[in-house]
Design a protein that fits this description.
This protein is mostly helical. It has helices spanning 2-40, 43-74, 78-106, 108-111, 118-143, 147-155, 157-177, 182-214, 228-233. It has a single domain (2-217), classed as Phosphate transport system protein phou homolog 2, domain 2 (Methane Monooxygenase Hydroxylase, Chain G, domain 1). It contains 9 helices and no strands. The protein is elongated, with a radius of gyration of 20 Å.
Length: 234
């Protein structure tokens, strides 16, 4: 009987992990598709991203329900309890990444019929690639139970902050040089900010995953290199 209970409990935990992996895959796909849709003015692809958000929401709801039921029935302790509660937290961040991707996709129609000029889209495309690699990696590193890699991944967010500051300044320069660029650049600025926020959610996931695996918290304070506020204030 005890062995049956343990096996059933392990299956419940594995199902939560599987949902997290599914949500991580979907978050990466939505982020990639939303950015591509914005830069190529692909309204069909953008609409698919918006539709995928409902799938993301459903997966988060399923995970939450399973986690709450598991806590009520099994009363897990120590690392098992951290895994369940941490899974809920990570799912919330993954769901938020889906929301940010949806927000980017919704801007495709507002940009207009023509794709953004390459000189305006190159920097945002590069930044999107950096963010996408982090989204894809964070759940994988957790699935591999690699705490050291999660620490390194969390610290990589500084590079995204730096890149966002660079994109912000570059797009402002384009707008000042030619007012015809203002509409496209404004939407790309919102896109860049959403991507930077995706990076912040990846940081949250990495921190929660690290805590689940080690029982220790990573240092709370991590320097933020987003200097856009200073740019605006000057």
């Amino acid at each position: 009987m005890a062995e049956h209970i343990v096996a059933s409990f392990d299956e419940d935990l594995e199902h939560i992990d599987r949902l997290l992996r599914d949500m991580g895959d979907l978050a990466g796909a939505m982020t990639q598709s939303a950015t591509r849709a914005l830069l190529t003015s692909d309204t069909g692809l953008a609409q698919r991203v918006v539709s995928d958000d409902a799938i993301m929401d459903a997966k988060q709801l399923e995970l939450d329900e399973r986690a709450i039921t598991l806590i009520a029935k099994r009363q897990p302790m120590a690392q098992d309890l951290r895994a369940v509660v941490g899974g809920i937290r990570m799912a919330a961040d993954l769901e938020r990444i889906g929301d940010l991707a949806k927000n980017i996709a919704k801007r495709v129609g507002a940009v207009g019929q023509g794709a953004a000029p390459r000189k305006l889209s190159h920097s945002i495309d590069t930044m999107a690639g950096m963010v996408l690699s982090q989204v894809k990696a964070v759940v994988e590193r957790y699935a591999e139970r690699d705490a050291a890699a999660l620490t390194a991944l969390r610290d990589e967010d500084e590079k995204i902050d730096t890149r966002y500051t660079s994109v912000f300044r570059e797009l402002l320069t384009y707008m000042m040089e030619d007012p015809r660029n203002i509409t496209a650049c404004t939407h790309l600025l919102f896109c860049a900010k959403n991507l930077e926020r995706v990076g912040d959610h990846v940081t949250n996931i990495a921190e929660n995953a690290y805590y689940i695996l080690t029982g220790e918290q990573l240092p709370v304070q991590r320097p933020k290199l987003d200097e856009t506020q200073m740019t605006v204030d000057r």
